[in-house]
Amino acid sequence: MGSIAAAVLFSRSGPPVETSASDEIRTAIPQATPEQSAKTSLAQDAQATESSMTTAKPSLANHLRELGACLSIHNTLRDDKENNFESVVASVRSELGDLEADSLDWKNTHVVLPSGEKRRLRLEIEGTGEQSTIRRLKYYGVDADDLPVPLPLSKEQSINPSDTFLASLEKEGRITLQEEARRGFFAGGAEVYHVEKDGVLSEFEISYQGKSFKCSDLETSQGRCQCF
Amino acid sequence: MKKALRRCIFAVSFVTSLSATASVWEDSETWSPAWEQKYSEWISQSFNEDFFMVGKYQGIPTDCADAVYMSRAIFAYENKLPFVIKDPTGGSSKLTNKMSRFDSEADEFKRVRKFLLFLADVASTKSLPNDSYPVSIKRDYVRPGAIWSRPRITKDNVFRRIFGGTVQEDPGHAELVKDVSDTGAVFLIGSTVPQAVRKLISTSSLVFMPVEQSTGLRAWMAPEQYSLKKEELPGYSLEQFSMGKPEENFSSDNVGRNTQRNITDWTREVQGRLALRSESKEENLNRQAQNVCNLVNARVEAVTKGNNYRKKLDGDCMDRDAYDAFSTPSRDKRIKATLSDMVDSGGGFGFSSAQRAKKLKSYLDKCADIEYAPGKKISLYEYSLKALANDVSSNPNDSLEARWGMAEPGSNKCPRYE
């Protein structure tokens, strides 16, 4: 957290303020005022709410039927399936087996601090050698153009950060977006990749015996799938 | 007069302050099929192995995704074209050359270098699918500048099935198509991990078969294309994800035969679709030899880093993380697999691959001797014999000489993490 204190804070007015000595001095950039950030955030929330009220709830059941036809498997189907990855896993378990691996690929988290300033966390699995990977955390402020501004982290905070540290950053404010991609495989050898946005399944792709089935935008009414 | 001068100074100051919000670079051109062709030609002719070692872009560290993204950004900058990518951090704005982030830097080229470093910070192999789309396997689209990418591979995946062994985790990777020969061979150029200032690496083998839609041979998205469906983009196709099945025939011998996609048939089919003529055996062997030459030369950096770390430990063993970071089993398996292919197609007689490889000496000798340490060299032919005889060590706890097959692996009692 000491190193977080070293991050550049975006004051309510005027240029960014260094809170401690740091080699990672960031260029002063135009900042959205906290009032502007709060307004933007509220507007986005309102838009999302309105969208969900007017859009019909997407049905995963139809897509699961398409999945079975594409991969030539007899997966189980229930029309009341929740739109989440667990439903997909449950549907294919009888044919593809249990999910044996399901590891993080990348994750974005947006946080609005009590001051109205915004922060973004991006956690990625990054290659460091032929067989080696690390979890790399990158931490960002957000400028007036809604673009990420890198904020410094120590090596310990950035490379394989602890869950405790990650949670502490998330708890600094209100989470306004979470999107997470994971990758794994089933016991029967099928490979799977999926993305959830704010807890809702947005995308998944299952590859099995030379065929692949991919669904996108499942959280919207434009959700669609392809077999290839 | 003084008043007029003061007014003039004020006017100049006012105009100057208005232009203080500058782009990284101004774009006056627009991406078009003609500009895509020029980008392709530039990659083929100018984006060479020493691109980040000499000249104006020297000293910029890259990993595989950095080199791919930077190639596009640099060409855009040098030709006053726009550069646009989707924000990998989940924001709704695009990252573009119009960012005013680096305004405090008056020198445009310095702004560009800062932008490139920012790009390297935010973009990765995981963001490439956002900024590209899969294309039809035709020379119109699989051409210099096209992207070749694969995701991170976990255990029990294609990579393990190709090379065997127990690869637990294989990081994602991305390269650019550097050239497509008239025999359909795809030549690639790219960097590697970890991020470092390095010569780019050239190879000519597509060592994996794309499975997910987010991978494979891909074209860049132009700025105005982000508002379109990918299916509407020029050359969009999913055909590469269904290619690679063994040729069908109706012989009864095929009953029960495995008809699943496989990398051998996939590679052959890609080359066939891109070829303007057949590749002769001689051409194939020369290409494979050049490929091995490049791969072995690229191995020098990886092994040297591991050896330097080993010496710092002064006899202690590497822990698992260091072992994984400095071992070279995937690279060594790829080199050996390429050599084995050469032996199978052009080798002589002999009980072992190493014996049969002797007929390939003339091809391998075309590669300059590899300097694996200051003043220490090995010919590619000699290295190849050792690799085929399994005398080359991937173990980073072994001595430098053992890593190059020049000595027996040491008697170190260090654990192996493979």
List the helices and strands and how they pair.
The complex is a heterodimer of chains A (228) and B (418).
Chain A: H1 2-5, E1 8-9, E2 17-18, H2 34-54, H3 60-71, H4 85-96, E3 99-112, E4 118-127, E5 133-142, E6 148-151, H5 155-158, H6 163-170, E7 174-186, E8 191-197, E9 200-208, E10 211-216, E11 224-227
Antiparallel strand pairs in A: 1-2, 3-4, 3-7, 4-5, 5-6, 7-8, 8-9, 9-10, 10-11
Chain B: H1 2-18, H2 33-45, H3 64-78, E1 84-86, E2 94-96, H4 108-122, E3 132-134, E4 147-150, E5 153-154, H5 158-163, E6 169-170, E7 173-180, E8 186-190, E9 201-203, E10 216-220, H6 263-274, H7 281-313, H8 320-326, H9 329-346, H10 353-356, H11 361-364, E11 370-373, E12 376-378, H12 380-388, H13 400-403
Antiparallel strand pairs in B: 1-2, 3-10, 4-7, 4-10, 5-6, 7-8, 8-9, 11-12
Protein architecture, described:
- The complex is a heterodimer of chains A (228) and B (418).
- Chain A has helices at 2-5, 34-54, 60-71, 85-96, 155-158, 163-170; strands spanning 8-9, 17-18, 99-112, 118-127, 133-142, 148-151, 174-186, 191-197, 200-208, 211-216, 224-227.
- Chain A has 228 residues and is of the alpha+beta class.
- The model of chain A is unreliable at 1-30 and 33-55 (pLDDT under 50).
- In chain A, the strands form two sheets. In chain A, strands 6-5-4-3-7-8-9-10-11 form a nine-stranded antiparallel β-sheet, sandwiched between helices. Chain A has a two-stranded antiparallel sheet with strand order 1-2.
- Chain A has six helices and eleven strands.
- Helix content of chain A is 27%, strand content 36%.
- Chain A has a domain at 58-114 and 173-228.
- The longest helix of chain A has 21 residues, at 34-54.
- Chain A is globular.
- With 418 residues, chain B is an alpha+beta fold.
- Chain B has three domains: 20-127, no CATH class; 129-245 and 255-261, no CATH class; 281-403, no CATH class.
- A six-stranded antiparallel β-sheet of chain B has the order 3-10-4-7-8-9. Chain B has a two-stranded antiparallel ribbon with strand order 1-2.
- In chain B, strand 7 (173-180) and strand 8 form a beta hairpin.
- In chain B, helix 3 runs antiparallel to helix 4 (108-122) and helix 7 (281-313) packs antiparallel against helix 9 (329-346).
- Chain B is globular, with a radius of gyration of 25 Å.
- Mean pLDDT of chain B is 87; it is low at 8-19, 156-168 and 249-256.
- At the A-B interface, strand 3, strand 4, strand 5, strand 6 and strand 7 of A face helix 4, strand 6, helix 8 and helix 9 of B.
